[in-house]
């Protein structure tokens, strides 16, 4: 009893934003969970984010409204933030801090696990490989997603990133019939967006293989710092304990970073670029680097974070740092969206650095690499011809430039634009060959002759 009394305090010095400053404390650890008991009996959770001799800074989940500095009790719980895990977690919907919001009873956990995770030992980390089929031609065909990879989607305000995320979650699969699951973490989304995702997943019959963590815009901002870690801890359990291949979709990382900036400002830290904390790179790395495969384990964790670029600025700190940590990027184009093309993926600046590990014979198809290279080359020539046309007009273009121009238009209309339809990798490559077969053979400089003989002009 004496120890319990010593761990309870009514010594709040001040309240700033989502933070409370507690003085006169001892034996407090960084990351320790805290119970904040208000005078009326309401209890909120909190976490120690800074500890020094006689002083602790606590971030309060649920907000600091109503906290009385003289009457509110602070109880330090001597444990870190944890999430309850079991195989029954599939098909469930939780809020941003892991509490069920689907009207079903709480799960009975087999274990509780710290949401901070543990880094994968570099010695036991396996190279990401094998193909995840998203059903999106511009991703599967040209920027292939590989098991264990982290591949962000960069978008702009008003672009259909949510629709693309939903389509990928609904369609994604791995070959060979291996167990596959999706963990969906939403941060700062509106109630309308939440309804869109939940209703869509239910109608698609995909809920049985999905776990959802959802932090809404009206929820406390501070909870957004917990949401991706809840999602990733769940994904690691499904992958490395239950042997599943898990795709983690996180939307939107810009909202996560805004929450990080809010806490940094409340702590009166020296700001970095555009007011974001200087440690944001390290913080993002603790999220993105949890993707991967472990030697001797059957499962894998693959991350597909969505990052909004404010003012379509790819040099903004959040997409900029994300690009340094991750293994490529899928970029959505406002120009293609304006043309009515969906999904509006701009394939030229998009990139999957691990694509070669997931394609080829016995994974996708033997001609995959050659076809992708040739599509890139011809589309780039077509975009160049489009810029030239804007200067000299169509009449000023030669016959060859007009062919490239037609190819670019056909590529966007038939390959990039696919609507909500799912395309398997075979269909994607067949559409590509239909486009390539409209060009003279001498223009196919990136495809080996054996593949030209096998596929050129042979529509399926």
Description of the structure:
With 460 residues, this protein is an alpha/beta fold. It folds into three domains: 2-80, Beta Barrel (Thrombin, subunit H), CATH 2.40.10; 83-356, Rossmann fold; 368-455, no CATH class. Helices cover 33% and strands 23% of the residues. The strands form five sheets. An eight-stranded mixed sheet has the order 9-16-15-17-19-13-20-21, with helices on both faces. It has a seven-stranded antiparallel sheet with strand order 1-7-4-5-6-3-2. Helix 3 runs parallel beside helix 4 (191-203), helix 7 crosses helix 8 and helix 11 packs across helix 13 (425-436). The chain is elongated, with a radius of gyration of 25 Å. The termini are far apart.
Topology:
Layout: H1 2-6, E1 8-9, E2 12-16, E3 19-25, E4 32-37, E5 43-52, E6 54-60, E7 73-80, E8 82-85, E9 93-95, E10 111-114, E11 125-126, E12 132-133, H2 137-140, E13 153-155, H3 161-171, E14 173-174, E15 180-189, H4 191-203, E16 210-216, H5 227-241, E17 245-251, H6 253-266, H7 280-288, E18 293-294, E19 300-308, H8 317-325, E20 328-331, H9 334-338, E21 351-352, H10 355-358, H11 368-392, H12 399-416, H13 425-436, H14 449-455
Parallel strand pairs: 9-16, 13-19, 13-20, 15-16, 15-17, 17-19
Antiparallel strand pairs: 1-7, 2-3, 3-6, 4-5, 4-7, 5-6, 8-10, 11-18, 12-14, 20-21
Helix pairs in contact: 3-4, 7-8, 11-12, 11-13, 12-13
């Amino acid at each position: 009893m004496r120890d319990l009394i010593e761990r309870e305090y009514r010594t709040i010095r001040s309240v700033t934003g989502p933070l409370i400053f507690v003085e006169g404390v001892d034996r407090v650890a960084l990351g320790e969970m805290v119970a904040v008991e208000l005078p009326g009996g309401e209890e909120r959770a909190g976490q120690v984010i800074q500890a020094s001799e006689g002083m602790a800074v606590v971030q309060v989940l649920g907000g600091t409204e109503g906290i009385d500095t003289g009457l509110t009790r602070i109880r330090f719980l001597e444990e870190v933030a944890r999430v309850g895990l079991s195989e029954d977690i599939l098909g469930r919907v939780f809020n941003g801090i892991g509490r069920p919001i689907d009207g079903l009873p709480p799960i009975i956990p087999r274990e509780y696990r710290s949401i901070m995770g543990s880094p994968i030992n570099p010695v036991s980390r396996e190279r990401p490989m094998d193909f995840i089929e998203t059903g999106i031609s511009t991703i599967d065909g040209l920027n292939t997603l590989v098991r264990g990879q982290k591949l962000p989607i960069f978008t702009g305000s008003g672009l259909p990133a949510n629709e693309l995320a939903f389509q990928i979650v609904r369609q994604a699969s791995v070959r060979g019939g291996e167990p596959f699951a999706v963990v969906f973490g939403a941060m700062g989304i509106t109630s309308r967006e939440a309804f869109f995702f939940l209703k869509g997943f239910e109608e698609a019959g995909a809920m049985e293989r999905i776990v959802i963590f959802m932090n809404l815009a009206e929820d406390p901002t501070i909870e957004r710092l917990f949401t991706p870690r809840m999602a990733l801890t769940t994904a690691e359990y499904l992958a490395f304990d239950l042997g599943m291949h898990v795709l983690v979709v996180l939307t939107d990382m810009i909202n996560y970073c805004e929450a990080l900036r809010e806490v940094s400002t409340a702590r009166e830290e020296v700001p970095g670029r555009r007011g974001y904390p200087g440690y944001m790179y390290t913080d993002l790395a603790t999220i993105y680097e949890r993707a991967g495969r472990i030697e001797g384990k059957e499962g894998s964790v693959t991350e597909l974070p969505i990052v909004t670029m404010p003012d379509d600025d790819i040099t903004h700190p959040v997409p900029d740092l994300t690009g340094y940590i991750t293994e490529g990027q899928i970029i959505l184009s406002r120009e293609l969206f304006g043309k009515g093309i969906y999904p509006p993926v701009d394939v030229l600046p998009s990139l999957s650095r691990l694509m070669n590990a997931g394609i080829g014979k016995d994974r996708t198809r033997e001609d995959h690499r050659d076809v992708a290279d040739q599509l890139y080359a011809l589309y780039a020539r077509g975009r160049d011809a489009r810029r030239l046309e804007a200067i000299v007009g169509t009449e000023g273009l030669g016959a060859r430039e007009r062919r490239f121009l037609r190819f670019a238009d056909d590529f966007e209309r038939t390959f990039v634009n696919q609507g909500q339809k799912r395309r398997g990798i075979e269909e994607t490559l067949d559409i590509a060959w239909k486009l390539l077969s409209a060009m003279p053979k001498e223009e196919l400089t990136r495809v080996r002759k054996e593949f030209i003989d096998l596929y050129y002009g042979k529509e399926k």
